[in-house]
Amino acid sequence: DTAVSQTPKYLVTQMGNDKSIKCEQNLGHDTMYWYKQDSKKFLKIMFSYNNKELIINETVPNRFSPKSPDKAHLNLHINSLELGDSAVYFCASSFIWTETQYFGPGTRLLVL
Amino acid sequence: DAKTTQPTSMDCAEGRAANLPCNHSTISGNEYVYWYRQIHSQGPQYIIHGLKNNETNEMASLIITEDRKSSTLILPHATLRDTAVYYCIVRGDFGNEKLTFGTGTRLTIIP
Fold this sequence. Notes:
The complex is a heterodimer. Chain A is mostly beta strands. Chain A is 0% helix and 56% strand. Chain A has strands at residues 4-7, 10-13, 19-25, 31-37, 43-50, 53-57, 64-70, 73-78, 87-94, 102-103, 107-111. In chain A, the strands form 2 sheets. In chain A, strands 2, 4, 5, 6, 9, 10 and 11 form a 7-stranded mixed β-sheet that branches. Chain A has a 4-stranded antiparallel β-sheet with strand order 1-3-8-7, with no helix packed on it. The N and C termini of chain A lie far apart (34 Å). Chain B is mainly β. In chain B, the strands form 2 sheets. Chain B has a 5-stranded mixed β-sheet with strand order 1-9-8-3-4, with no helix packed on it. A 4-stranded antiparallel β-sheet of chain B has the order 2-7-6-5, with no helix packed on it. In chain B, a hairpin with a 6-residue loop joins strand 3 (31-38) and strand 4 (45-50). The radius of gyration of chain B is 13 Å and the shape is globular. The model of chain B has no long low-confidence stretch (mean pLDDT 92).
């Protein structure tokens, strides 16, 4: 049973396109996150949602819009994709008052 | 969040204990020390965390100095599958605080 799952695993697309990445967790957690890991392997948080409410919003371009339809899902929509958006995107989840975050397997996005 | 300093890379022989140091000299009283690791191409994995007492679980032990300015993660019997980047992170105990990943230590287990 996969605790945190992401789809797709790989995403290759052209500049200017709009794409979405989906994340689901079956751990009953109330908080979900999106992280970006760039080519230099730096892992940075982008967003965090608690009970469908945005609680962390780092300096991320407006082209990135997270959406949380319910506590178990946090999707990431990216408009007008740019070359610099190429990275691995990780979803994670946790209980807000605990310290352990569980990460998904990542979505490898390549913008051509 | 307090900044952490870790060696860029380390090697350890298979079967031996791997000791990974971390300096966090500016840690404050309510901040915990966390360790995560990232095996190649996978998502980060939680290992252990502690406040001031030493901690042990099925994966590792965490030794925190009395002044809390540094800590050591110990993998007691390293295997090839422990080859990964290990991140030492300091984070407060408030619910909405984020994990700030540094560059970590790339641990290579040598057969």
